[in-house]
Design a protein that fits this description.
It is a single chain. This protein folds into three domains: about 5-55, Structural Genomics Hypothetical 15.5 Kd Protein In mrcA-pckA Intergenic Region, Chain A, CATH 3.10.290; about 60-125 and about 210-225, Alpha-Beta Plaits (2-Layer Sandwich); about 130-205, Alpha-L RNA-binding motif (Alpha-Beta Plaits, 2-Layer Sandwich), CATH 3.30.70. By secondary structure, it is α+β, with helices and mostly antiparallel strands. It has helices at about 5-10, 15-25, 115-120, 140-150, 185-190; strands at about 25-30, 30-35, 45-50, 50-55, 60-65, 95, 105-110, 130-135, 150-155, 160, 165-170, 170-175, 195-205, 205-210, 215-220. The strands form three sheets. Strands 5, 6, 7, 8, 11, 12, 13, 14 and 15 form a nine-stranded mixed beta sheet that branches. Strands 2-1-3-4 form a four-stranded antiparallel beta sheet, with no helix packed on it. Strands 9-10 form a two-stranded antiparallel sheet. The chain binds uracil (URA).
């Protein structure tokens, strides 16, 4: 939507009124006087006319440590969700940039900026996600090699990018994958009859859980490239 269209609509006074306001130099976009009403109004622009704010939406970017048992969803009739952990009036504007299973803990990212969430979740962006994995039995080297080679996922008709994997003990590893397929890690291990008993996400791209405790969240002011 253009500035003129937005002003015409939000004032209810029509296009001519919007044009007059803009021509009079009464309209500011992100603090600067605008004279071109055909400029597009973006979701997080600050727009005012005669000092009155017409649109002020804050872009929000949050890192949250999802505890086990909390649902990666915005609302749910039965279970508590990650949004229920954010006691802010704007919490219901947020959506998730990638989910975790209910039994998985660790980093989730919430935002109201869909361009940002798409930059993290879109399959062609190949954003690395790193997990700590515990299993019910020893993880053989042959399995690690298959992860490193990439695996095919018939249901999604895709092949995973080569994963990075570091064995931490006989039954635990740090695994980095580049997709976000449903139950991806559990399915990767189950192919070899191995059950994942604990799963925890440490990072998504450049974002790390750091010392956030389960249930805690923090803002990131400016998303990194
Ligand atoms: N893989 C899984 O199986 N579960 C998750 O929550 C994340 C990755």
């Amino acid at each position: 939507m253009t500035l003129s269209q937005f002003i015409a609509k939000s004032s209810g006074l029509g296009k001519r009124h919007a044009k007059k306001l803009i021509e009079a130099g009464d309209v500011r976009l992100n603090g600067e006087i605008v004279i071109d009403g055909n400029l597009p109004l973006e979701k997080f622009d600050l727009l005012s006319a005669n000092g009155e704010i017409l649109q002020a939406r804050t872009a929000r970017y949050l890192l949250l440590h999802k505890p086990i048992g909390i649902l990666s969803a915005t609302t749910d009739k039965i279970h508590r969700t990650v949004v229920d952990l954010i006691h802010e009036p704007w919490a219901n504007e947020l959506h998730l940039a990638g989910r975790l299973d209910r039994a998985t803990s660790g980093l989730v990212i919430l935002t109201n900026d869909s361009r940002f969430s798409e930059s993290l979740t879109s399959p062609d962006k190949h954003v690395p996600k790193t997990y700590l994995v515990q299993t019910d039995q020893a993880i053989p080297e042959t399995v690690l090699q298959q992860f490193r080679d990439g695996m095919s996922f018939e249901k999604e008709n895709t092949r995973s990018a080569p994963a990075e994997v570091e064995l931490l003990s006989e039954t635990s590893c740090r695994l980095t994958i580049y997709e976000g397929l449903h139950h991806q890690i559990k399915r990767m291990f189950l192919r070899f009859g191995i059950r994942v008993t604990q799963l925890h996400r440490e990072s998504i791209g450049p974002y790390h859980l750091g010392n956030l405790q389960p249930g805690e969240w923090r803002n990131i002011d400016f998303p990194l490239d």
